[in-house]
Amino acid sequence: MKEKKSTKKYSDLPDTITPCDYAEWRGVGENTAREIFNSKGFPRLKGTGVKQLADKRRVLLYELGLTDEQMSEVLKEMARTIIWERRWTKDDRETINNDIHNDVFINTSSNIFYTRNYCEN
Q1: What one-character DSSP code corresponds to residue 3?
Q2: Domains of the chain by residue range
């Protein structure tokens, strides 16, 4: 029997995957991937009719053996992180660009802005 090899990295997968994407990522046949998608407990997206779709993050957590409750907690934390990073980037990018001439520097490890204000005599 010929062994299949993974042809896709997790980072290359779309956010919503099909059994074909799963098969390429995990290095299994397409029929095996469809059986996994149909197995009890697999995190398929609901309400997609006959289409077999799943969120790649939930599938990864499923593959790691997390329970539904653990998956929900991890996904909530991931969402908080994504929202915070986007807010930080969106709100502060303009500030950084506008205030670069005011001797503003950023401590990226704690994400705090420090500004030195000098009085000109």
Answers
A1: P
A2: 1-65, 69-121
**Whats the size of the chain, residue-wise?**
121
Amino acid present at 75? L
How far from 87 is each of 61, 76, 111, CA to CA, in Å? 26, 16, 12
Q: Which residues pair with 62 in a beta bridge?
A: none
CA atoms within a 13 Å half-sphere pointing along the CA-CB vector of 64 = 12
3-state secondary structure of 104: strand
Q: What is the pLDDT of residues 12-53, one digit of tens each?
A: 999 999 999 999 999 999 999 999 999 998 999 988 888 999
Q: What single-letter DSSP state applies at residue 48? A: -
Cα separation of 62 and 79, whole Å?
17
Q: What is the amino acid identity at position 55?
A: D
| Rounded Cα distance, 37 and 19, in Å | 7
Q: How far does the chain reach from its first CA to its final CA, in angstroms? A: 83
pTM: 0.61
CA gap 44, 60 in Å, rounded: 12
